[in-house]
Amino acid sequence: MGTTVLFKPTVIQRKALALLKSGAKHILLFGGSRSGKTTVLVMAIIFRALRYAGSRHLICRYRAKDARSSVLRETLLPWLDNTVGKSGYRYHVHESVVTLFNGSEIWIGGLGDREQADKILGHEYNTIYFNEISQLSYVAVTTAYSRLAMRIQGCRNLFYYDCNPGSPLHWAYKIFVLKRTFLSGEPLEKAELYTSMLLNPEDNRENLPEDYISDILDVLPEKQKARFRDGLWVKAEGVIYDRFDESMIVKAADLPEQFDRYAAGQDFGLNITFVKIGWVGDVIYVLGDYGAFNMTTQSFNDELSARGLLDCPDEMGMPVYCDPAGGERIQEIRGGTKANNSVESGIDFINAKIERGQFFVCEKCTGVLSEIWDYCRDEAGQIVKLNDHFLDALRYAIFSDVQQGVVFQ
Ligand SMILES: Nc1ncnc2c1ncn2[C@@H]1O[C@H](COP(=O)(O)OP(=O)(O)O)[C@@H](O)[C@H]1O
Ligand SMILES: [Mg+2]
């Protein structure tokens, strides 16, 4: 066996460990990059797995591949080597699970693809750790909630979360920082169950390369510096709908009473989403949205009906413009028809509406709002395909309608 390095928490990691024992059930560590968030949460899981023989724990993020490279290989396996030693555990590559000598299990997986999600959500756990939740949708996370159901004597089941901050419209900001429910915006009923803490790279200086903060973080563009060095919840760099601002969010009571016409957009996939809009002249109002995780198209359509989202005043009818890749699923959506999927032109059109003050979003549209400031391009100008589920549906709703020639005849 190689030399072992004892885990010596930083001052802030010590506080984080205390927070994990504070009585809260949902604990978020957020902050800049390389501040020791993942390390301390992984250590906490190792401690729990050792302490409670036969317990089961899940570490998941959006992509299984990222969970395996950044959490499993860079953090979990090295620290297991340091604590229980190589002979004290086995990593089963095929199932992506680590089994410890005492019968405890630590599963690693992704919530972003169906097969993976079904596999990891087929078990019950004592801890579920959502890694880098800025990339996870609210419904994906809450779908996993029911799996925190393993019973082990003396072990309190817990949810851990970590992330680099997203936009201040992100669901995690609303829940953990504003202490409001994500969907209704009401104050959290049991606020004491939710707690969070900020950890920044400065707090982890002793474990970072000498020049990491000064040469890498200090020289980032402003918004990235705010997120990755200072751990602030700000709009991302390269945000596609950058000109959207909070003055364009309207209360349900302040919406127009009548609309000239309605349209909706529908995206398929593991994150299945729907967005409804209404037009008054040239002005677009985003009126409602709904999203689910791992739901069949038929059940989703039933949900839309039950929620009244497919209703509109007499005779008016509402086309539901669907992801053209949806194939036969399009027929399962009432009013479903193929959407126009010109991504760049659609984005340009929506941006022009935003700039002219002809675009409003009802406060109830939590899906659209939570993604709108995180939908961005990478440095090469490519759209980042994360957190785009509602925004694709929004674009189908708006731009297909325009392309049908309904608007500019
Ligand atoms: N207590 C610790 N002892 C030794 N190294 C640590 C400790 N905490 C963090 N590190 C190291 O600091 C770096 C960043 O930690 P990490 O947990 O990945 O940060 P974050 O998840 O906040 O980005 C990693 O190289 C990690 O191994
Ligand atoms: Mg991390």
Task: Summarize this structure briefly.
This protein is of the alpha/beta class and 409 residues long. 30% of the residues lie in helices and 20% in strands. Helix 1 (11-20) packs across helix 2 (37-51) and helix 11 (366-372) packs across helix 12.
Q: What count of structural domains?
A: 2
Query: What CATH architecture label of the largest domain applies?
Result: 3-Layer(aba) Sandwich
What's the rounded overall pLDDT mean?
93
Query: How far from one another are the termini?
Result: 76 Å
H/I helix tally = 12
How big is the Rg?
23 Å
CATH superfamily of the largest domain: P-loop containing nucleotide triphosphate hydrolases
Strand arrangement across the biggest beta sheet? 3-4-5-2-6-7-1-8
Oligomer: single chain
Estimated helix fraction: 25-40%
Overview of the structural elements:
This protein is α/β, with parallel strands linked by helices and 409 residues long. It folds into 2 domains: 11-228, P-loop containing nucleotide triphosphate hydrolases (Rossmann fold, 3-Layer(aba) Sandwich), CATH 3.40.50.300; 246-403, Nucleotidyltransferase, domain 5, CATH 3.30.420. It has 12 helices and 15 strands. It has helices spanning 11-20, 37-51, 64-83, 114-120, 138-144, 171-177, 212-217, 222-228, 297-306, 343-355, 366-372, 389-403, and strands spanning 26-30, 56-61, 89-92, 97-100, 105-110, 127-130, 158-163, 194-198, 249-250, 261-267, 271-280, 283-293, 320-322, 336-338, 359-362. The strands form 2 sheets. It has an 8-stranded mixed sheet with strand order 3-4-5-2-6-7-1-8, with helices on both faces. A 7-stranded mixed sheet has the order 9-15-12-11-10-13-14. It starts with 10 loop residues before the first helix and ends in a 6-residue tail after the last helix. The mean pLDDT is 93. Bound molecules: adenosine-5'-diphosphate (ADP) and magnesium ion. Adenosine-5'-diphosphate binds next to helix 2.
